[in-house]
Amino acid sequence: MAYRVTLLPGDGIGPEVAQAMQKCIDATGVKIEWDEQMVGEPAIKKYNTPLPDHVLDSVRKNKIAIKGPIVTPIGTGFRSVNVALRQALDLYACVRPVKYYEGTKSISKKLDLVIFRENTEDLYAGIEFELGTESCDKIIKEISALSPKKIRKDSAISIKPISVFGSRRIVKAAFEYAVKNNRRKVTAVHKANIMKFTDGLFLRTAQEVAEEYKGKIEFQDVIVDNMCMQLVQKPELYDVLVLPNLYGDIVSDLCAGMAGGLGIAPGANIGDEAALFEPVHGSAPKYAGQNKVNPTATILSGVLMLKHIGEAQAADRLERAVSAVLKEGKDVTYDLKTDRDDPTAVGTREMAQAIIARL
Ligand code: NAD
């Protein structure tokens, strides 16, 4: 029986990388019925919204979706489709594997990490009060009455909620992943020495969850600034990392850079009801329609999707094919060449064809 997967090509370079991924997945022989849906700029043109309700219905029904990047229009009143999708489907775990592939510009051959970023809380919850508004003045007065610390009157305020519920489920997801994927250690990353109540709660909850896995999976915690230095110097010490939203956002891009850049960084947003796979990079509008950009990040997101639906063998074959093309370094896009102006660089479609040829 074929799997039904919602395909969201997105906009900018999205349709090109999505098509490359789709061809690679189809070439593995796994039967997928693609339920293609318009989001982003084409959807704004047709439906006057970047995320029509029927798209959400499709993801809810199929439970699995894979998407290309989508532009976040500035100043149009449309909110980010990516944030909207995560919130509407409660995709609370942003999962990003970071791995060394020979032939890439990785800073370390020992990179093999999986990052679990909490996706729904923290300073990203969107609870903000704008400077000069009545609500902002009110909040400042309230806080001044409740706390000995004073806030300057000309401040804007963002709220950082971190709950036991949100922390527990992301830490649990990281440990469950570690068990299922033969990983040895989970590291919780925080700033609990300074943010004693919010990050302190995250850390305490992580320690409690870790007790449930004692003897099976090792646990440690590291303060986020120290983590950044250690990752650059000794990435081999780490395995699965679990972080609140903001640190997760920053550390995962740091790690994508360490592994050789956005062109090869895949990702997944996973909840209890649905999972959405996507490259880490954005829609790079300046390269749209040029058959130029690297499809690897989206193809590797497809590998994550295959693993998620239980097609581990096909996933491994596709990953090995990607790895062989990267290692050879011939049929690769400009960003993977030593000289970015190298005339032998191939296009998005040609790189996907080279990967398919090695399946
Ligand atoms: P971007 O990732 O789109 O591009 C930054 C630069 O990275 C590009 O100019 C290019 O040089 C390089 N790059 C990105 N993807 C590449 C690839 N596959 N191959 C080779 N090089 C690649 O980031 P941006 O310019 O900050 O964002 C553009 C738009 O994308 C914005 O509207 C942003 O909001 C949106 N965005 C969407 C997502 C998403 O859909 N998940 C993620 C990030 C940004």
Describe the overall structure.
By secondary structure, the chain is an alpha/beta fold. The protein folds into three domains: 1-95 and 262-359, 3-Layer(aba) Sandwich (Isopropylmalate Dehydrogenase); 107-121 and 162-259, 3-Layer(aba) Sandwich (Rossmann fold), CATH 3.40.50; 123-161, no CATH class. It is 41% helix and 16% strand. It has helices at residues 14-27, 41-47, 53-62, 81-88, 134-146, 164-180, 198-211, 224-233, 245-258, 296-308, 312-328, 348-357; strands at 3-8, 32-36, 64-67, 93-99, 112-118, 128-129, 157-158, 185-190, 218-223, 240-243, 266-270, 275-279. It starts with a strand and ends with a helix. The mean pLDDT is 95. Residues 17, 69-72, 82, 262-263, 278, 281-284, 286, 293-294, 297, 335 line the site of nicotinamide-adenine-dinucleotide. Nicotinamide-adenine-dinucleotide is lined by residues 17, 69-72, 82, 262-263, 278, 281-284, 286, 293-294, 297, 335.
Structure summarized in a few sentences:
The protein is α/β, with parallel strands linked by helices and 359 residues long. The chain is 41% helix and 16% strand. The protein contains twelve helices and twelve strands.
